[in-house]
Amino acid sequence: MSAKNLEDFDPTRFDYVVVDEFHHAEAPTYNRLFDYFQPRELLGLTATPERMDGQRGVIEKLWPPTYELRLWHALERNLLCPFHYFGIDDGTDLSTLAWSSGQYQDAELETAFIEKGTERSRVMLREFREKIDPTDMRVVAFCATIRHADYVAKVFRDAGYSAESLHSGLTHDDRHSLVKRFRQGELPIICTVDLFNEGVDIPEINTVLFLRPTESATVFIQQLGRGLRNHWDKGALTVLDFVGQQNKNFRMDLRFRAMTGLSRLQIKDAIEKEFPYLPAGCDIRLDRVTSQRVLDNLKQALPSSIRQLTDELRRLSLDGTVPSLGKFLAETSLEPEDLYRSDRSYLLVREKAGLYDGEIPSGHHRVGSMVHVDDRARALQYQNIARGTVTDIRFERMLSHPITEKLSLGSASNEVREELAQLMEVLHQTAHPLPVVAEDLPFALHASYNRDEIVSPFRDNPKSMRQGTFYVKDFELDVHLVTLRKSDRDFSPTTRYDDWFESPEILHWESQSTTKVDTPTGQRLINGMGRHLIFVREFKDDPFLCIGFAKLISYESEMPIRIRWKLDHSVPDHIYIRLRSASG
To answer: Is the Cβ–Cβ distance between 82 and 75 less than 8 Å?
Structure first.
Protein backbone atom coordinates (compact mmCIF):
# COMPACT_ATOMS: atom_id res chain seq x y z
CA MET A 1 0.00 0.00 0.00
CA SER A 2 2.82 2.40 0.77
CA ALA A 3 4.03 2.12 -2.84
CA LYS A 4 0.65 3.00 -4.32
CA ASN A 5 -0.81 6.37 -5.14
CA LEU A 6 -3.36 6.65 -2.33
CA GLU A 7 -5.37 9.23 -4.25
CA ASP A 8 -6.46 6.36 -6.52
CA PHE A 9 -8.63 5.25 -3.60
CA ASP A 10 -11.56 7.00 -2.04
CA PRO A 11 -10.63 7.71 1.63
CA THR A 12 -13.78 5.84 2.70
CA ARG A 13 -13.15 2.91 0.31
CA PHE A 14 -12.49 0.45 3.15
CA ASP A 15 -15.02 -0.09 5.94
CA TYR A 16 -12.68 -2.23 8.00
CA VAL A 17 -8.89 -1.92 8.16
CA VAL A 18 -6.76 -4.51 9.98
CA VAL A 19 -3.11 -3.66 10.66
CA ASP A 20 -0.82 -6.46 11.79
CA GLU A 21 2.48 -5.81 13.64
CA PHE A 22 0.88 -2.60 14.87
CA HIS A 23 3.91 -1.67 16.99
CA HIS A 24 5.35 -0.30 13.73
CA ALA A 25 2.46 2.14 13.49
CA GLU A 26 4.63 5.24 14.05
CA ALA A 27 6.58 4.59 10.83
CA PRO A 28 5.91 7.25 8.15
CA THR A 29 4.50 4.68 5.71
CA TYR A 30 1.93 3.59 8.29
CA ASN A 31 1.06 7.14 9.34
CA ARG A 32 0.48 8.06 5.71
CA LEU A 33 -2.20 5.36 5.52
CA PHE A 34 -3.79 6.34 8.83
CA ASP A 35 -3.95 10.00 7.84
CA TYR A 36 -5.57 9.21 4.49
CA PHE A 37 -8.08 6.42 5.02
CA GLN A 38 -11.24 6.85 7.07
CA PRO A 39 -12.53 3.36 7.86
CA ARG A 40 -15.46 2.70 10.16
CA GLU A 41 -13.25 0.38 12.18
CA LEU A 42 -9.48 0.24 12.58
CA LEU A 43 -8.08 -2.88 14.24
CA GLY A 44 -4.42 -2.99 15.24
CA LEU A 45 -2.81 -6.32 16.18
CA THR A 46 0.52 -6.69 17.94
CA ALA A 47 2.24 -9.05 20.33
CA THR A 48 4.62 -6.28 21.46
CA PRO A 49 2.70 -3.03 22.09
CA GLU A 50 5.63 -1.32 23.83
CA ARG A 51 7.75 0.60 21.34
CA MET A 52 11.52 0.43 21.61
CA ASP A 53 11.73 4.12 22.57
CA GLY A 54 9.10 3.78 25.29
CA GLN A 55 6.52 5.87 23.41
CA ARG A 56 3.09 4.64 22.37
CA GLY A 57 2.34 7.16 19.62
CA VAL A 58 -0.54 5.88 17.50
CA ILE A 59 -1.14 3.05 19.96
CA GLU A 60 -1.74 5.67 22.66
CA LYS A 61 -4.49 7.21 20.53
CA LEU A 62 -6.35 3.88 20.49
CA TRP A 63 -5.75 3.09 24.18
CA PRO A 64 -7.18 1.23 26.05
CA PRO A 65 -6.97 -1.98 24.06
CA THR A 66 -10.18 -3.58 22.87
CA TYR A 67 -8.69 -6.83 24.07
CA GLU A 68 -5.33 -7.53 25.65
CA LEU A 69 -3.81 -11.01 25.92
CA ARG A 70 -0.24 -11.02 27.20
CA LEU A 71 2.19 -13.91 26.88
CA TRP A 72 1.52 -15.30 30.34
CA HIS A 73 -2.26 -15.04 29.80
CA ALA A 74 -2.05 -17.00 26.55
CA LEU A 75 0.09 -19.66 28.23
CA GLU A 76 -2.42 -20.01 31.06
CA ARG A 77 -5.24 -20.49 28.55
CA ASN A 78 -3.31 -23.07 26.50
CA LEU A 79 -3.25 -20.83 23.44
CA LEU A 80 0.53 -21.25 23.39
CA CYS A 81 2.59 -24.25 24.36
CA PRO A 82 4.39 -24.12 27.74
CA PHE A 83 8.12 -23.49 27.90
CA HIS A 84 10.98 -24.91 29.95
CA TYR A 85 13.56 -22.15 30.28
CA PHE A 86 17.14 -22.80 31.38
CA GLY A 87 19.42 -19.88 32.22
CA ILE A 88 22.96 -21.20 31.79
CA ASP A 89 26.29 -19.65 32.69
CA ASP A 90 28.47 -19.95 29.58
CA GLY A 91 31.67 -18.62 31.15
CA THR A 92 31.87 -15.61 28.80
CA ASP A 93 32.89 -12.24 30.25
CA LEU A 94 31.24 -9.37 28.36
CA SER A 95 31.53 -6.88 31.22
CA THR A 96 34.46 -5.00 29.65
CA LEU A 97 33.01 -4.74 26.13
CA ALA A 98 32.01 -1.34 24.79
CA TRP A 99 28.42 -0.44 25.62
CA SER A 100 26.58 2.22 23.66
CA SER A 101 22.88 3.05 23.23
CA GLY A 102 21.85 -0.04 25.14
CA GLN A 103 23.84 -2.59 23.17
CA TYR A 104 27.23 -4.14 22.52
CA GLN A 105 29.25 -3.62 19.35
CA ASP A 106 28.98 -6.47 16.84
CA ALA A 107 32.73 -6.63 16.19
CA GLU A 108 33.48 -7.10 19.89
CA LEU A 109 30.78 -9.77 20.23
CA GLU A 110 32.32 -11.67 17.31
CA THR A 111 35.69 -11.62 19.04
CA ALA A 112 34.19 -12.85 22.32
CA PHE A 113 32.05 -15.54 20.69
CA ILE A 114 34.37 -16.73 17.90
CA GLU A 115 38.05 -15.97 18.50
CA LYS A 116 37.62 -16.56 22.25
CA GLY A 117 34.56 -18.79 22.03
CA THR A 118 36.00 -22.29 22.32
CA GLU A 119 34.97 -22.80 25.94
CA ARG A 120 31.54 -21.27 25.31
CA SER A 121 31.00 -23.71 22.43
CA ARG A 122 31.97 -26.59 24.69
CA VAL A 123 29.41 -25.47 27.30
CA MET A 124 26.74 -25.03 24.60
CA LEU A 125 27.26 -28.56 23.26
CA ARG A 126 27.30 -30.09 26.74
CA GLU A 127 24.03 -28.44 27.75
CA PHE A 128 22.51 -29.20 24.37
CA ARG A 129 23.27 -32.91 24.67
CA GLU A 130 21.95 -33.04 28.24
CA LYS A 131 18.64 -31.28 27.61
CA ILE A 132 17.64 -31.94 23.97
CA ASP A 133 16.18 -35.14 22.54
CA PRO A 134 18.38 -35.91 19.48
CA THR A 135 15.61 -37.91 17.78
CA ASP A 136 13.21 -34.98 17.51
CA MET A 137 14.96 -31.67 17.00
CA ARG A 138 13.61 -28.49 15.45
CA VAL A 139 16.17 -26.04 16.83
CA VAL A 140 16.54 -22.32 16.14
CA ALA A 141 19.70 -20.69 17.49
CA PHE A 142 19.66 -16.89 17.60
CA CYS A 143 23.15 -15.54 16.96
CA ALA A 144 24.80 -12.12 17.16
CA THR A 145 26.09 -11.65 13.58
CA ILE A 146 26.22 -13.48 10.25
CA ARG A 147 29.78 -14.58 10.96
CA HIS A 148 28.70 -15.83 14.39
CA ALA A 149 25.80 -17.79 12.86
CA ASP A 150 28.17 -19.45 10.39
CA TYR A 151 30.52 -20.28 13.26
CA VAL A 152 27.81 -21.83 15.45
CA ALA A 153 26.49 -23.92 12.55
CA LYS A 154 30.00 -25.27 11.98
CA VAL A 155 30.38 -26.07 15.69
CA PHE A 156 27.22 -28.18 15.49
CA ARG A 157 28.31 -29.88 12.26
CA ASP A 158 31.71 -30.70 13.72
CA ALA A 159 29.88 -32.30 16.65
CA GLY A 160 27.92 -34.55 14.31
CA TYR A 161 24.69 -32.57 13.89
CA SER A 162 23.10 -31.33 10.69
CA ALA A 163 23.05 -27.53 10.94
CA GLU A 164 23.03 -24.52 8.62
CA SER A 165 23.11 -20.76 9.04
CA LEU A 166 20.21 -18.66 7.77
CA HIS A 167 20.71 -14.93 7.28
CA SER A 168 20.27 -11.99 4.94
CA GLY A 169 23.53 -12.80 3.14
CA LEU A 170 21.85 -15.75 1.41
CA THR A 171 19.69 -15.58 -1.70
CA HIS A 172 15.93 -15.74 -1.37
CA ASP A 173 15.87 -19.19 -2.92
CA ASP A 174 18.54 -20.49 -0.53
CA ARG A 175 16.67 -19.14 2.47
CA HIS A 176 13.41 -20.68 1.25
CA SER A 177 15.11 -24.03 0.67
CA LEU A 178 16.63 -24.10 4.17
CA VAL A 179 13.29 -23.31 5.84
CA LYS A 180 11.57 -26.00 3.75
CA ARG A 181 14.17 -28.62 4.76
CA PHE A 182 13.85 -27.52 8.38
CA ARG A 183 10.06 -27.92 8.41
CA GLN A 184 10.29 -31.32 6.76
CA GLY A 185 12.70 -32.56 9.40
CA GLU A 186 15.68 -32.88 7.06
CA LEU A 187 17.58 -30.03 8.75
CA PRO A 188 17.22 -30.10 12.55
CA ILE A 189 19.24 -26.97 13.45
CA ILE A 190 19.09 -23.48 11.98
CA CYS A 191 21.41 -20.72 13.21
CA THR A 192 19.96 -17.35 12.32
CA VAL A 193 20.44 -13.61 12.72
CA ASP A 194 17.23 -11.59 13.21
CA LEU A 195 15.34 -13.23 10.32
CA PHE A 196 13.01 -15.12 12.65
CA ASN A 197 12.03 -12.19 14.84
CA GLU A 198 8.72 -11.41 13.12
CA GLY A 199 6.35 -12.81 10.55
CA VAL A 200 7.60 -16.40 10.76
CA ASP A 201 5.12 -19.17 11.48
CA ILE A 202 6.83 -22.52 12.02
CA PRO A 203 4.91 -24.41 14.74
CA GLU A 204 7.35 -27.33 14.54
CA ILE A 205 10.08 -25.36 16.36
CA ASN A 206 10.58 -27.10 19.72
CA THR A 207 13.91 -25.65 20.89
CA VAL A 208 15.24 -22.10 21.00
CA LEU A 209 18.84 -21.20 21.80
CA PHE A 210 19.74 -17.66 22.80
CA LEU A 211 23.41 -17.26 21.86
CA ARG A 212 23.44 -13.48 21.79
CA PRO A 213 22.83 -10.94 24.56
CA THR A 214 19.38 -9.46 23.95
CA GLU A 215 18.38 -6.69 26.35
CA SER A 216 15.26 -5.68 24.43
CA ALA A 217 12.20 -7.37 25.91
CA THR A 218 10.42 -6.85 22.59
CA VAL A 219 13.07 -8.73 20.58
CA PHE A 220 13.33 -11.41 23.26
CA ILE A 221 9.58 -12.11 23.21
CA GLN A 222 9.53 -12.08 19.40
CA GLN A 223 12.30 -14.67 19.29
CA LEU A 224 10.87 -16.75 22.13
CA GLY A 225 7.51 -16.64 20.41
CA ARG A 226 8.90 -18.44 17.34
CA GLY A 227 8.74 -21.62 19.39
CA LEU A 228 5.55 -21.08 21.37
CA ARG A 229 3.06 -22.03 18.65
CA ASN A 230 1.09 -25.13 19.59
CA HIS A 231 1.83 -28.24 17.55
CA TRP A 232 0.43 -31.74 17.90
CA ASP A 233 3.93 -33.22 18.27
CA LYS A 234 5.28 -30.72 20.80
CA GLY A 235 4.71 -30.97 24.55
CA ALA A 236 6.76 -27.92 25.52
CA LEU A 237 9.32 -25.52 24.11
CA THR A 238 12.85 -25.95 25.47
CA VAL A 239 14.73 -22.66 25.87
CA LEU A 240 18.48 -22.59 26.48
CA ASP A 241 19.64 -19.06 27.29
CA PHE A 242 23.42 -18.82 27.54
CA VAL A 243 24.12 -15.98 29.94
CA GLY A 244 27.60 -14.62 30.53
CA GLN A 245 28.98 -11.87 32.73
CA GLN A 246 27.22 -8.83 31.28
CA ASN A 247 28.00 -5.13 31.28
CA LYS A 248 26.75 -3.55 34.50
CA ASN A 249 24.20 -1.54 32.50
CA PHE A 250 22.70 -4.61 30.83
CA ARG A 251 19.11 -5.07 32.05
CA MET A 252 18.94 -8.82 32.71
CA ASP A 253 15.59 -8.47 34.46
CA LEU A 254 13.73 -7.46 31.30
CA ARG A 255 13.55 -10.95 29.80
CA PHE A 256 12.13 -12.40 33.02
CA ARG A 257 9.62 -9.60 33.31
CA ALA A 258 8.53 -10.26 29.74
CA MET A 259 8.09 -13.99 30.41
CA THR A 260 6.24 -13.65 33.71
CA GLY A 261 4.54 -10.26 33.82
CA LEU A 262 6.19 -9.51 37.17
CA SER A 263 7.63 -6.16 38.19
CA ARG A 264 11.36 -5.69 38.71
CA LEU A 265 10.95 -5.99 42.49
CA GLN A 266 8.76 -9.09 42.14
CA ILE A 267 11.36 -10.68 39.86
CA LYS A 268 13.94 -10.49 42.63
CA ASP A 269 11.63 -12.35 44.98
CA ALA A 270 10.72 -14.91 42.29
CA ILE A 271 14.37 -15.70 41.54
CA GLU A 272 15.16 -16.17 45.21
CA LYS A 273 12.17 -18.53 45.53
CA GLU A 274 12.87 -20.29 42.19
CA PHE A 275 9.78 -18.96 40.36
CA PRO A 276 7.02 -20.64 42.38
CA TYR A 277 4.10 -19.15 40.39
CA LEU A 278 4.12 -19.75 36.64
CA PRO A 279 1.45 -20.76 34.13
CA ALA A 280 0.72 -24.50 34.10
CA GLY A 281 3.47 -26.57 32.49
CA CYS A 282 6.02 -23.74 32.46
CA ASP A 283 9.34 -23.87 34.26
CA ILE A 284 12.20 -21.40 34.72
CA ARG A 285 15.47 -22.72 36.05
CA LEU A 286 18.64 -20.72 36.57
CA ASP A 287 21.91 -22.35 37.48
CA ARG A 288 23.58 -21.08 40.63
CA VAL A 289 25.97 -18.70 38.86
CA THR A 290 23.31 -17.26 36.57
CA SER A 291 20.87 -16.80 39.44
CA GLN A 292 23.43 -14.83 41.44
CA ARG A 293 24.42 -12.77 38.42
CA VAL A 294 20.82 -11.80 37.73
CA LEU A 295 20.30 -10.83 41.38
CA ASP A 296 23.54 -8.82 41.35
CA ASN A 297 22.48 -7.17 38.10
CA LEU A 298 19.14 -6.19 39.63
CA LYS A 299 21.05 -4.37 42.33
CA GLN A 300 23.62 -2.78 40.02
CA ALA A 301 21.82 -1.96 36.78
CA LEU A 302 19.58 0.62 38.43
CA PRO A 303 20.25 2.88 41.39
CA SER A 304 18.49 1.48 44.44
CA SER A 305 20.22 2.59 47.63
CA ILE A 306 19.71 6.12 48.92
CA ARG A 307 23.39 6.81 48.20
CA GLN A 308 23.05 5.68 44.58
CA LEU A 309 19.92 7.76 44.17
CA THR A 310 21.58 10.88 45.52
CA ASP A 311 24.62 10.33 43.27
CA GLU A 312 22.33 10.08 40.25
CA LEU A 313 20.44 13.22 41.25
CA ARG A 314 23.68 15.18 41.65
CA ARG A 315 24.80 14.01 38.20
CA LEU A 316 21.51 15.08 36.65
CA SER A 317 21.68 18.47 38.39
CA LEU A 318 25.13 19.51 37.18
CA ASP A 319 23.58 22.24 35.02
CA GLY A 320 22.19 23.86 38.16
CA THR A 321 18.60 22.69 37.60
CA VAL A 322 17.03 20.00 39.78
CA PRO A 323 15.00 17.70 37.51
CA SER A 324 11.33 17.08 38.16
CA LEU A 325 10.32 13.77 39.67
CA GLY A 326 9.16 12.54 36.27
CA LYS A 327 12.42 13.44 34.57
CA PHE A 328 14.47 11.86 37.37
CA LEU A 329 12.58 8.57 37.03
CA ALA A 330 12.87 8.64 33.25
CA GLU A 331 16.60 9.42 33.24
CA THR A 332 17.37 6.66 35.74
CA SER A 333 14.91 4.10 34.24
CA LEU A 334 13.39 3.73 37.69
CA GLU A 335 9.79 2.84 38.39
CA PRO A 336 8.00 4.81 41.12
CA GLU A 337 8.06 1.67 43.31
CA ASP A 338 11.87 1.65 43.10
CA LEU A 339 12.14 5.14 44.57
CA TYR A 340 9.31 5.03 47.11
CA ARG A 341 10.57 2.21 49.30
CA SER A 342 11.33 2.19 53.02
CA ASP A 343 9.55 5.51 53.63
CA ARG A 344 11.69 7.27 51.03
CA SER A 345 10.60 10.24 48.97
CA TYR A 346 12.04 12.45 46.24
CA LEU A 347 12.26 15.24 48.79
CA LEU A 348 14.46 12.99 50.92
CA VAL A 349 16.72 12.22 47.95
CA ARG A 350 17.02 15.94 47.21
CA GLU A 351 17.82 16.67 50.86
CA LYS A 352 20.48 13.93 51.00
CA ALA A 353 21.99 15.23 47.74
CA GLY A 354 22.29 18.74 49.18
CA LEU A 355 19.73 20.06 46.71
CA TYR A 356 17.00 21.05 49.16
CA ASP A 357 17.26 24.07 51.41
CA GLY A 358 15.83 24.00 54.89
CA GLU A 359 14.30 21.23 56.95
CA ILE A 360 12.58 18.46 55.06
CA PRO A 361 8.80 18.70 55.72
CA SER A 362 6.98 16.19 57.86
CA GLY A 363 4.79 13.69 56.07
CA HIS A 364 7.08 13.50 53.03
CA HIS A 365 7.41 9.72 53.50
CA ARG A 366 3.65 9.22 53.04
CA VAL A 367 3.73 10.27 49.37
CA GLY A 368 4.89 6.76 48.50
CA SER A 369 1.68 5.30 49.92
CA MET A 370 -0.01 6.33 46.65
CA VAL A 371 2.30 4.67 44.08
CA HIS A 372 -0.36 2.03 43.37
CA VAL A 373 -2.75 4.47 41.63
CA ASP A 374 -3.40 2.87 38.24
CA ASP A 375 -6.60 4.34 36.82
CA ARG A 376 -6.33 7.48 34.75
CA ALA A 377 -9.32 9.44 36.07
CA ARG A 378 -8.23 9.08 39.70
CA ALA A 379 -4.61 10.01 38.92
CA LEU A 380 -5.86 13.22 37.27
CA GLN A 381 -8.25 13.98 40.15
CA TYR A 382 -5.44 13.48 42.68
CA GLN A 383 -3.06 15.65 40.66
CA ASN A 384 -5.55 18.52 40.57
CA ILE A 385 -6.35 18.16 44.28
CA ALA A 386 -2.66 18.26 45.19
CA ARG A 387 -2.40 21.54 43.28
CA GLY A 388 -5.46 23.04 44.96
CA THR A 389 -8.33 22.27 42.60
CA VAL A 390 -11.06 20.11 44.15
CA THR A 391 -13.96 19.07 41.92
CA ASP A 392 -15.04 15.95 43.83
CA ILE A 393 -14.93 15.89 47.63
CA ARG A 394 -14.84 12.09 47.66
CA PHE A 395 -11.49 12.01 45.89
CA GLU A 396 -10.13 14.71 48.21
CA ARG A 397 -10.97 12.51 51.20
CA MET A 398 -9.45 9.47 49.48
CA LEU A 399 -6.16 11.24 48.76
CA SER A 400 -5.90 13.27 51.94
CA HIS A 401 -6.22 10.64 54.62
CA PRO A 402 -3.26 8.46 53.50
CA ILE A 403 -1.10 11.61 53.37
CA THR A 404 -2.26 13.66 56.38
CA GLU A 405 -4.52 11.26 58.32
CA LYS A 406 -7.16 13.96 57.90
CA LEU A 407 -9.86 14.50 55.29
CA SER A 408 -8.15 17.52 53.76
CA LEU A 409 -4.67 18.23 52.39
CA GLY A 410 -4.63 21.57 54.15
CA SER A 411 -2.02 20.51 56.71
CA ALA A 412 0.38 19.16 54.05
CA SER A 413 3.29 21.40 53.11
CA ASN A 414 3.49 22.92 49.65
CA GLU A 415 6.55 20.77 48.95
CA VAL A 416 4.74 17.54 49.81
CA ARG A 417 1.72 18.58 47.74
CA GLU A 418 3.92 19.38 44.74
CA GLU A 419 5.75 16.05 44.93
CA LEU A 420 2.40 14.32 45.20
CA ALA A 421 1.19 16.17 42.10
CA GLN A 422 4.32 15.23 40.18
CA LEU A 423 3.93 11.59 41.21
CA MET A 424 0.36 11.62 39.90
CA GLU A 425 1.62 13.08 36.62
CA VAL A 426 3.97 10.12 36.28
CA LEU A 427 1.31 7.57 37.21
CA HIS A 428 -1.19 9.19 34.85
CA GLN A 429 1.12 8.37 31.92
CA THR A 430 0.94 4.63 32.55
CA ALA A 431 -2.56 4.44 34.09
CA HIS A 432 -5.45 3.00 32.10
CA PRO A 433 -8.88 4.58 31.61
CA LEU A 434 -10.89 2.10 33.68
CA PRO A 435 -14.71 2.12 33.94
CA VAL A 436 -16.39 3.22 37.18
CA VAL A 437 -18.19 0.49 39.12
CA ALA A 438 -21.22 2.75 39.70
CA GLU A 439 -22.02 6.41 39.10
CA ASP A 440 -22.55 7.07 42.80
CA LEU A 441 -19.23 5.51 43.88
CA PRO A 442 -15.66 6.82 43.33
CA PHE A 443 -14.15 3.43 42.44
CA ALA A 444 -13.00 2.03 39.10
CA LEU A 445 -13.27 -1.60 38.08
CA HIS A 446 -9.94 -3.47 38.42
CA ALA A 447 -8.14 -0.45 39.90
CA SER A 448 -5.94 -0.64 43.00
CA TYR A 449 -6.67 1.07 46.35
CA ASN A 450 -5.29 1.16 49.86
CA ARG A 451 -7.64 0.68 52.80
CA ASP A 452 -7.89 4.40 53.59
CA GLU A 453 -9.02 5.17 50.04
CA ILE A 454 -11.77 2.57 50.25
CA VAL A 455 -13.11 3.63 53.65
CA SER A 456 -12.61 7.42 53.65
CA PRO A 457 -15.52 8.29 51.30
CA PHE A 458 -17.90 6.81 53.90
CA ARG A 459 -16.26 7.32 57.30
CA ASP A 460 -14.56 10.33 58.87
CA ASN A 461 -12.06 8.11 60.65
CA PRO A 462 -11.00 5.31 58.29
CA LYS A 463 -8.53 3.98 60.86
CA SER A 464 -11.47 2.93 63.02
CA MET A 465 -12.54 0.38 60.40
CA ARG A 466 -10.43 -2.73 60.97
CA GLN A 467 -12.91 -5.40 59.94
CA GLY A 468 -12.87 -7.08 56.55
CA THR A 469 -16.39 -5.94 55.76
CA PHE A 470 -18.55 -2.89 56.50
CA TYR A 471 -22.00 -1.62 55.61
CA VAL A 472 -22.91 1.82 54.26
CA LYS A 473 -26.62 2.28 54.85
CA ASP A 474 -27.09 5.43 52.75
CA PHE A 475 -25.75 3.59 49.69
CA GLU A 476 -27.28 0.19 50.50
CA LEU A 477 -23.74 -1.06 50.08
CA ASP A 478 -21.74 -3.83 51.72
CA VAL A 479 -18.00 -3.52 51.10
CA HIS A 480 -15.97 -6.71 51.48
CA LEU A 481 -12.16 -6.57 51.78
CA VAL A 482 -10.54 -9.93 51.07
CA THR A 483 -6.93 -11.02 51.72
CA LEU A 484 -6.16 -14.31 49.99
CA ARG A 485 -2.83 -15.26 51.60
CA LYS A 486 -3.31 -15.15 55.37
CA SER A 487 -0.22 -15.68 57.51
CA ASP A 488 -0.32 -16.94 61.08
CA ARG A 489 1.50 -13.79 62.14
CA ASP A 490 -1.03 -11.34 60.69
CA PHE A 491 -4.30 -13.25 61.12
CA SER A 492 -5.73 -15.01 64.15
CA PRO A 493 -7.38 -18.42 63.77
CA THR A 494 -10.81 -16.74 63.81
CA THR A 495 -9.92 -14.35 60.97
CA ARG A 496 -8.14 -16.76 58.60
CA TYR A 497 -11.20 -17.03 56.39
CA ASP A 498 -11.32 -19.55 53.56
CA ASP A 499 -11.45 -17.19 50.57
CA TRP A 500 -10.48 -18.40 47.10
CA PHE A 501 -11.30 -18.15 43.40
CA GLU A 502 -13.01 -21.04 41.68
CA SER A 503 -12.92 -19.30 38.28
CA PRO A 504 -12.56 -15.74 36.92
CA GLU A 505 -16.26 -15.19 37.75
CA ILE A 506 -16.74 -17.13 41.00
CA LEU A 507 -15.30 -16.35 44.44
CA HIS A 508 -15.69 -18.53 47.51
CA TRP A 509 -15.88 -16.26 50.55
CA GLU A 510 -16.50 -16.50 54.28
CA SER A 511 -18.18 -13.83 56.38
CA GLN A 512 -16.84 -12.75 59.76
CA SER A 513 -16.71 -15.63 62.22
CA THR A 514 -19.44 -14.08 64.41
CA THR A 515 -22.01 -13.55 61.63
CA LYS A 516 -25.26 -15.48 62.04
CA VAL A 517 -27.90 -16.00 59.38
CA ASP A 518 -30.65 -14.25 61.37
CA THR A 519 -28.70 -11.00 61.88
CA PRO A 520 -29.21 -7.95 59.60
CA THR A 521 -25.82 -8.62 58.01
CA GLY A 522 -26.63 -12.28 57.57
CA GLN A 523 -29.97 -11.47 55.95
CA ARG A 524 -28.35 -9.06 53.48
CA LEU A 525 -25.82 -11.74 52.58
CA ILE A 526 -28.06 -14.75 52.13
CA ASN A 527 -30.91 -12.86 50.45
CA GLY A 528 -28.67 -10.81 48.15
CA MET A 529 -30.10 -7.58 49.53
CA GLY A 530 -28.46 -4.32 48.48
CA ARG A 531 -25.12 -4.18 46.67
CA HIS A 532 -21.99 -6.13 47.51
CA LEU A 533 -18.71 -4.59 46.34
CA ILE A 534 -15.59 -6.72 46.64
CA PHE A 535 -11.92 -5.74 46.90
CA VAL A 536 -9.20 -8.42 46.98
CA ARG A 537 -5.46 -8.52 47.57
CA GLU A 538 -2.87 -11.26 47.72
CA PHE A 539 -0.87 -10.29 50.83
CA LYS A 540 -1.63 -8.09 53.83
CA ASP A 541 0.67 -5.28 52.68
CA ASP A 542 -0.58 -5.21 49.06
CA PRO A 543 -3.10 -2.68 47.77
CA PHE A 544 -6.63 -3.97 47.24
CA LEU A 545 -7.97 -4.62 43.73
CA CYS A 546 -11.56 -3.61 43.05
CA ILE A 547 -13.18 -6.59 41.32
CA GLY A 548 -16.64 -5.05 41.26
CA PHE A 549 -20.08 -6.11 42.39
CA ALA A 550 -21.06 -9.70 43.08
CA LYS A 551 -24.33 -11.60 43.39
CA LEU A 552 -25.08 -14.57 45.60
CA ILE A 553 -25.01 -18.02 44.00
CA SER A 554 -25.39 -20.11 47.15
CA TYR A 555 -24.57 -20.16 50.85
CA GLU A 556 -24.14 -22.63 53.69
CA SER A 557 -23.47 -22.70 57.42
CA GLU A 558 -23.09 -19.70 59.71
CA MET A 559 -20.46 -18.20 62.02
CA PRO A 560 -19.02 -17.88 59.39
CA ILE A 561 -21.47 -17.95 56.51
CA ARG A 562 -19.84 -19.56 53.47
CA ILE A 563 -20.87 -17.91 50.21
CA ARG A 564 -20.22 -18.44 46.52
CA TRP A 565 -20.29 -15.08 44.77
CA LYS A 566 -20.68 -14.56 41.02
CA LEU A 567 -18.91 -11.41 39.89
CA ASP A 568 -20.69 -9.04 37.53
CA HIS A 569 -17.41 -8.76 35.59
CA SER A 570 -14.88 -11.54 35.09
CA VAL A 571 -11.42 -10.93 36.52
CA PRO A 572 -9.02 -10.31 33.57
CA ASP A 573 -6.66 -13.16 32.73
CA HIS A 574 -3.45 -11.47 33.86
CA ILE A 575 -5.00 -10.66 37.25
CA TYR A 576 -6.77 -13.98 37.66
CA ILE A 577 -3.56 -16.01 37.21
CA ARG A 578 -2.04 -14.28 40.23
CA LEU A 579 -5.19 -14.39 42.35
CA ARG A 580 -5.85 -18.03 41.62
CA SER A 581 -2.28 -18.93 42.66
CA ALA A 582 -2.76 -16.90 45.83
CA SER A 583 -5.93 -18.85 46.55
CA GLY A 584 -3.87 -22.03 46.96
So the answer is: yes
